[in-house]
Amino acid sequence: MKKVYIRTFGCQMNEYDSDKMLSVLAENEELEQVSEPENADIILFNTCSVREKAQEKVFSDLGRVRKFKEKNPNIIIGVGGCVASQEGDVIVERAPYVDVVFGPQTLHRLPQLIDDKKHTGKAQVDISFPEIEKFDHIPAAKVTGGSAFISIMEGCSKYCSFCVVPYTRGEEFSRPLEDVLTEIVGLAQQGVKEVNLLGQNVNAYRGEMPDGGICDFAQLLRIVHEVPGIERMRFTTSHPREFSEAIIDCYRDLPKLVSHLHLPIQSGSDRVLSAMKRGYTALEYKSIIRKLRKYRPDLCLSSDFIVGFPGETEAEFAQTLKLVQDIAFDLSYVFIYSPRPGTPAANLPDDTPNDEKVRRLEALNEVIEAETRRINASMVGTVQRCLVEGVSKKDPNQMQARTANNRVVNFVGNPRLIHQMVDIEITESFTFSLRGNLLINED
Ligand code: SAM
Ligand code: F3S
């Protein structure tokens, strides 16, 4: 049995891709996933280049596993993901002990690349973009819990001026409807209760239908809603530019669609949004939220923000702060702008000192955390339908479940409840989690 160590950087998309790497390798031989690189036969890094820090971390981590390869030259070291896609051969030049380099679109070729390396003795680099082939070769998703991520589309064609994703993952490409549905029906039959439809811009979904027609994202939501056994639906990430009326109507009609939405806004300033090439104004974003809250007054909204975009003034940052308060965003992600080579924004003059960017990051996080605490406190005394995920990370005597609005709830319960939907009365709230009492009889 081969021991595989895999380290994943970055987003949910990468978590998903790491799972796929393991499944592709497991098609050919028995595998055991290990949590430390010592004694592993295959060491894989699934990398992220969205921000500079994550990118540089890869090279320092590679340096750390080099000694294992020196002791045992049969170990295979592979680098996948977006840094691989962007750097290609440079990775092997910088770290000659790396055996295979593959991009997000060629991870299904991993077994072949490893074989080729063994036979030729030469490092293998394949960072091409054969999107269709990738979806053809993906093994069925494995069930790891009551919740499953299903990739419905890949890539991004939005070309925000700060972002590398369109260059590293390629243009938007949707999986055919039948493939997505077959996967979801299979998962539901194996006991999966919650689906999370995954893609860089899920609302750009345009899946081919068996009759040759095209299924858009709103139609897909309605179809998945009817799959027996699926009790909860989420998606990530969607883009404000394509958040159509038809998608908004799904919040009126589809009770399985959770009242929690991650909709990246990036900034509250129209000048900055335009320089970012986001394709909407703050008012247009607010209008989407107003319509959604008409159907779902309890909608929890999370977002991504970039502070310190080149030329962002104090007044423009204040517009972001104000918008966060107006919309009452839930727990969100705030990033300091990181110039990415090859993106248009990297050429813009940037005279905001780093200390000031850090101050903006902290100020924004403070406002968002206050709102998150307020939402958590408002949940005390309510009964929440939750999916039990497993044993609590904080206390091995407790279980951990997730609410529809993506809160972790710790409660006392039987491990037999794992992957079941249960009702929990919330009794206490903290900044990042809740505590509650189970309301059903476990027997
Ligand atoms: N597809 C998503 C969307 O609709 O915006 C975003 C995907 S991106 C990988 C995730 C987040 O990383 C973005 O929303 C943005 O906030 C952040 N990000 C991307 N490029 C960045 C950069 N150069 N510097 C800082 N943050 C960045
Ligand atoms: Fe990046 Fe903008 Fe696409 S943030 S992933 S280019 S929507």
TrEMBL record:
InterPro entries cross-referenced by the UniProt entry: Elp3/MiaA/NifB-like_rSAM, Methylthiotransferase, Methylthiotransferase_CS, Methylthiotransferase_N, Methylthiotransferase_N_sf, MiaB_methiolase, rSAM, rSAM_horseshoe
Reaction catalysis annotation: N(6)-dimethylallyladenosine(37) in tRNA + (sulfur carrier)-SH + AH2 + 2 S-adenosyl-L-methionine = 2-methylsulfanyl-N(6)-dimethylallyladenosine(37) in tRNA + (sulfur carrier)-H + 5'-deoxyadenosine + L-methionine + A + S-adenosyl-L-homocysteine + 2 H(+)
Record localization: Cytoplasm
EC number annotated for this UniProt entry: 2.8.4.3
CDD domains documented for this protein: Radical_SAM
Keywords carried by this UniProt record: 4Fe-4S, Cytoplasm, Iron, Iron-sulfur, Metal-binding, S-adenosyl-L-methionine, Transferase, tRNA processing
Chief location category: cytoplasm
Sequence positions that bind [4Fe-4S] cluster 2: 156, 160, 163
Cofactor note: Binds 2 [4Fe-4S] clusters. One cluster is coordinated with 3 cysteines and an exchangeable S-adenosyl-L-methionine.
Domain TRAM, residue spans: 377-440
Family recorded in the similarity comment: Belongs to the methylthiotransferase family. MiaB subfamily.
Assembly notes: Monomer.
Protein name: tRNA-2-methylthio-N(6)-dimethylallyladenosine synthase
Species this chain originates from: Vitreoscilla massiliensis
Source taxonomy: Bacteria, Pseudomonadati, Pseudomonadota, Betaproteobacteria, Neisseriales
Annotated gene: miaB
